[in-house]
Design brief:
Helix content is about 15%, strand content about 25%. It is of the alpha+beta class.
């Protein structure tokens, strides 16, 4: 994401085993977007070669994986986590955020900054 200007370290929590959200989960016949496909593309990755004006779910999911690979964000995605609680705290004058993650019964802590 540094290539699009994000310099801050980040993590993404995903409840499923893989990214894709609704486009990964819903596999029924005819699942597709209900607005023009270009609306589903990121501003930093335009001109994806959509096969149809209203892309099917698998194509949207492929686009998400394309972007995740191209911008090397998969290493920041923590899969099979489900957020149960989120809180912030100040510890030793350093701001931080913690989240209790239900699926794995684990605590995920990240440093935050107001800079």
């Amino acid at each position: 994401m540094r290539s699009i200007g994000l310099q801050t370290p980040y993590s993404t929590l995903e409840s499923a085993e893989d990214l894709g959200g609704t486009w990964r989960t819903n596999k029924y016949t005819g699942v597709a977007v209900d607005i023009p496909s270009f609306v589903y593309q990121f501003s930093f990755e335009p001109n994806y070669r959509w096969s149809r004006s209203f892309a099917e779910g698998d194509e949207i999911n492929d686009y998400l994986h394309h972007c995740a690979s191209k911008y090397d964000i998969k290493k920041h995605i923590h899969s099979t986590y489900e957020l149960a609680m989120f809180y912030t705290s100040k510890k030793d004058d350093k701001e931080g955020a913690s989240a209790f993650l239900e699926k794995r019964q684990a605590e995920f802590t990240a440093k935050t900054s107001s800079d």
